[in-house]
């Protein structure tokens, strides 16, 4: 594995899940990457990704240095060939180039602007960090994907499913007050297609995910029908891909509550967090026995640890 930005960067995604689950049984290996340094660069807010990545890197005996570049760094210019006479003080060529001198691995969080689809889906910002740092790069959630989350999600499903047949997994859209990225659902779908599960996507019309992620995966526009017999339900809001970045519905009948749970196979309910209680998922679910969102969050440590371990030693990587 050279970088970790997508499931496509991983030779054996199932093997990486297994590795992360092994790490969970014995996470503290302080000699593994002693003396190595990871830079964790955040252009946007984070609670779990920031904390779990720091814990993961420390568990490996390495050091994590966090920079909230969106808040504390110089304003960055990403366009080539411009005269920098505006409010951008530093070009990504120098900023990432400098990071390349300090660190062994770089983690980057860069959300989409949700204005221009081509710009966001070109992953201009993440690719600039990869290109100009010269380092192995871990996506800490980019414009189109959140692979550390998806890896933790797969681990969590694996831990909660002991039968030999494939579980029915449903990802359902839920209402929200803000326009949110498609990164989490894109990524979940991309990873679940590699997993031994039967996946269904449900959302109101107009919320279809990009073909490159969801092409060929069954879509059911009737939420209740989609949820019938589900073993796992992943609840998430996202904004429209087709009418890019727009909110097309705020239909609260899609909020996940006991009514939805009742038609499932006593499903485990998942969310990447942060979650808006009472809007995206009702308290009766989040405070009840079916919710496994905290287990997902815990697994973020081990998914990050498996990935950083690979990238600290990437010359002899098999995954
Ligand atoms: N890292 C996990 C999710 C991050 C982001 N959620 C958010 O921005 C929620 C913000 C709010 O609820 O105001 C998303 O959907 O991609
Ligand atoms: N799930 C997740 O990535 O959370 P943060 O945005 O808080 O890092």
Automatic annotation (TrEMBL):
Instruction: Give residue ranges for domain Aspartate/ornithine carbamoyltransferase carbamoyl-P binding.
Output: 2-159
Recorded metabolic or biological pathway in which this protein acts: Amino-acid biosynthesis; L-arginine biosynthesis
Entry keywords, A to Z = Amino-acid biosynthesis, Arginine biosynthesis, Transferase
**Organism superkingdom:** Bacteria
Location of the Aspartate/ornithine carbamoyltransferase Asp/Orn-binding domain: 184-309
Q: Per its UniProt record, what SUPFAM superfamilies does this chain match?
A: Aspartate/ornithine carbamoyltransferase (SSF53671)
* InterPro entries, per database record: ArgF'-like, Asp/Orn_carbamoyltranf_P-bd, Asp/Orn_carbamoylTrfase, Asp/Orn_carbamoylTrfase_sf, Asp_carbamoyltransf_Asp/Orn-bd
Catalysed reaction(s)? N(2)-succinyl-L-ornithine + carbamoyl phosphate = N(2)-succinyl-L-citrulline + phosphate + H(+)
Instruction: Enumerate the residues binding carbamoyl phosphate.
Output: 46-49, 74, 109, 146-149, 272-273, 300
Any GO molecular function? amino acid binding
> A biological process (GO) annotation for this entry?
L-arginine biosynthetic process via ornithine
- The protein's assembly and partners: Homotrimer.
Q: What family classification does the UniProt entry report for this protein?
A: Belongs to the aspartate/ornithine carbamoyltransferase superfamily. SOTCase family.
What is this protein for, i.e. what is its function? Answer: Catalyzes the transfer of the carbamoyl group from carbamoyl phosphate to the delta-amino group of N(2)-succinyl-L-ornithine to produce N(2)-succinyl-L-citrulline. Is essential for arginine biosynthesis.
What name has this protein been given in UniProt? N-succinylornithine carbamoyltransferase
Annotated gene: argF'
């Amino acid at each position: 594995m050279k970088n970790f930005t997508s499931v496509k960067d991983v030779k054996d995604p199932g093997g990486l899940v297994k590795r992360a689950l092994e790490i969970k049984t014995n996470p503290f290996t302080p000699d593994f990457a002693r003396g190595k340094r990871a830079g964790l660069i955040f252009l946007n807010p984070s609670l779990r990704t920031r904390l779990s990545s720091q814990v993961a890197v420390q568990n490996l005996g390495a050091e994590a240095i966090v920079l909230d570049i969106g808040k504390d760094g110089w304003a960055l210019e990403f366009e080539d060939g411009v005269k920098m006479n505006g409010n951008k003080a530093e070009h990504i060529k120098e900023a990432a180039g400098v990071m390349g001198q300090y660190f062994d691995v770089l983690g980057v969080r860069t959300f989409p602007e949700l204005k221009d689809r081509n710009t966001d889906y070109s992953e201009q910002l993440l690719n600039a960090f990869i290109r100009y740092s010269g380092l192995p790069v871990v996506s800490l959630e980019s414009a189109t994907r959140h692979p550390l989350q998806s890896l933790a999600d797969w681990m969590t499903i694996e831990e909660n499913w002991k039968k030999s047949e494939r579980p029915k997994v449903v990802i359902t859209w839920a209402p929200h007050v803000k326009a949110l990225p498609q990164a989490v659902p894109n990524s979940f779908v991309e990873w679940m297609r590699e997993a031994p599960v039967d996946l269904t996507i449900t959302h109101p019309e107009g919320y279809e995910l990009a073909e490159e992620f969801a092409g060929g995966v069954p879509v059911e526009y009737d939420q209740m029908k989609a949820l019938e017999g589900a073993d796992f339900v992943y609840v998430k809001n996202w904004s429209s891909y087709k009418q890019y970045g727009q909110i097309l519905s705020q239909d609260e009948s899609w909020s996940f509550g006991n009514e939805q749970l009742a038609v499932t196979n006593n499903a485990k309910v998942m969310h990447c967090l942060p979650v808006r209680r009472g809007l995206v998922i009702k308290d009766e679910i989040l405070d009840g026995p079916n919710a496994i969102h905290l287990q997902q969050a815990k697994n973020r440590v081990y998914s990050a640890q498996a990935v950083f371990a690979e990238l600290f030693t990437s010359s002899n990587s098999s995954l």
